[in-house]
Design goal:
This protein is of the alpha/beta class. It has 6 helices and 9 strands; from the N terminus they run αββαβααββαβαβββ. The chain is globular. The N and C termini lie far apart (46 Å).
């Protein structure tokens, strides 16, 4: 049916992985262009870096403060630091093993750009995206609400998108 997800990622292909919120379209960071092409996403909108744990995230993005990350992660948050967004979702077991095997992936929701619904099931992902991916990991129905995006660049956290994560205290 599809390739091994780790092999597909290492070959520069996109894969569809479940997260704790919605299905994500993922690629290795050096191949993130494929995500923009598949979604029709504006390149001025960065994709997030997603890791299976905080240690892998800090190793991939030098300068991140683990004590700040620990307030939100792991969980349904995307944290923005300047021009980089980062996530450590509570991944389903199959997706967790894949992301651990490659260290970190560039990720965005597995839908077309332009306000399309966030995919809670594999069937909700547009066929053109599914057909172009090297692998699809199906974990059944997910909550379907995207992560809460919080900009931590300034002195005070600023919510850019309210999503699955409650607002921080």
């Amino acid at each position: 049916m599809t390739e091994d997800p780790v092999a597909a990622l290492r070959a520069g292909r996109a894969v569809i992985l479940p997260t704790d919120t919605v299905y994500g379209l993922c690629a290795l960071p050096e191949h993130e262009d494929v995500l923009y092409e598949l979604k029709g996403r504006d390149r001025s909108k960065p994709v997030a870096l997603l890791a299976a744990d905080l240690d892998a995230l800090v190793a991939a993005v030098p300068g991140l403060d683990p004590s700040v990350l620990e307030k939100y992660l792991p969980g349904p948050y995307t944290l923005v630091f300047g021009d980089v967004g980062v996530r450590v979702p509570n991944l389903p077991p199959g997706a967790d093993a894949i992301v651990r095997a490659v260290g970190v992936v560039a990720a965005t929701s597995a839908n077309l750009s332009g306000g399309r619904p966030d995919p809670r099931r594999v069937e909700d992902i547009p066929e053109e995206i599914r057909a172009a991916c090297g692998a699809i990991v199906d974990a059944g129905e997910l909550p379907g609400v995207p992560s809460t995006v919080i900009d931590l660049t300034g002195r005070e956290p600023r919510v850019l998108r309210q999503g699955a994560g409650p607002l921080p205290e």
